[in-house]
Design goal:
With 310 residues, the protein is of the alpha/beta class. The protein has 9 helices and 8 strands.
Length: 310
């Protein structure tokens, strides 16, 4: 009888053929020392180099191959949804996260936490990437304060229950600590080792920065109005209809009792358009309420194949 898997290690991979063998070797070495049943899942995120061929030569390993490059969040989502472990462990595929930190993260999790995040206290990244990360951290603190120092570190451990009814997409992997805290899970962080990249090029660029900012705003909005979109749309709609009604009423009184000419005046049009727009916002809010009450989970990626090398 197979033992119940305790830990599932999930690694998203995109064009990391030279980093894969050593990273897999380090993960296996670390997990064997824990003497607990485990599985290792590498998610091939549409790699265009020989990453998939390299992975097929490694054991033990479960390979989830996506049909196209869907992004790190989607790759993590695919791995998590196919994981069997009670504990989820995530790392980057570039080898900069150190698997030797995993036992420390697990030990901290056993102190009663649901999520333990890695904090790359001494980052080994180019100066430009550090500056961009600092700016992103400032914006995150303003929009989605998650109370951790390093939201961009993929090295984390979670209880599997943290991901129930949660879909990851876009650049949401950076918002996971905030999402977990908002959902009531207990979160902490510890300092971890961060290593220089040996092979390949970083996938981080200005496009991901823009996408990350937009996802941040999306998460902020989702957090405040996910269960009550009518509150924001309805409020805007009521304000527009109220002030537009005041304007229309004022114009009507001015025309009827004071002979105010409305010909060649823009204010009647402003009042009518504002009133109709307000009604539309209220209708949008009602429709949004109906939409969120329907179960519409959607995967933002497509799995081509799953290979298990035991």
């Amino acid at each position: 009888m197979n033992k119940k898997i305790q830990s599932s290690v999930i690694v998203p991979v995109f064009n990391e053929e030279k980093n894969i063998p050593s990273l897999h070797r380090e993960i296996v070495s670390t997990l064997r020392k824990l003497k607990k049943p485990y599985e290792i899942i590498f998610v091939n995120d549409g790699s265009t180099d020989n990453s998939l061929q390299v992975m097929k030569k490694l054991k033990p390993l479960k390979i989830i191959s996506l049909r196209k490059n869907s992004g790190q969040s989607a790759a993590l989502d695919a791995g998590i949804k196919n994981a069997k472990g009670e504990i989820i462990i995530t790392l980057d595929g570039d080898g900069q996260n150190d698997p030797k930190d995993i036992p420390c993260l697990l030990a901290k999790l056993n102190e009663g936490y649901d999520v333990v995040c890695g904090w790359r206290y001494k980052r080994k990244d180019p100066l430009s990437k550090k500056i961009i990360s600092k700016g992103a951290a400032f914006l995150r603190k303003f929009f989605v304060d998650d109370y951790v120092h390093d939201s961009g570190c993929t090295l984390r451990v979670y209880k599997k229950e943290c991901f129930e009814n949660l879909d990851l997409y876009g650049e949401m992997h950076r918002m996971i600590p905030a999402l977990m805290r908002w959902r009531g899970f207990k979160i902490t962080e510890i300092k971890v080792n961060h290593r220089p990249r040996k092979y390949g090029k970083t996938k981080y660029n200005w496009k991901r920065t823009i996408k990350g900012f937009l996802d941040m705003v999306d998460i902020w909005f989702w957090r405040k109005y996910e269960s009550r979109p009518l509150h924001i749309f309805g409020t805007v709609g009521l304000l527009l209809t109220f002030f537009s009604s005041l304007l229309i009423g004022y114009l009507a009184i001015a025309r009827l009792f004071f002979g105010y000419s409305l010909s060649n005046r823009i204010w009647p049009l402003v009042g009518v358009v504002g009133f109709l727009t307000g009604i539309q916002f209220i209708v949008f809010g009602l429709l949004a309420n109906l939409i969120i009450k329907t179960d519409s989970h959607k995967n933002f990626y497509s799995i081509k194949e799953i290979i298990e090398n035991k």
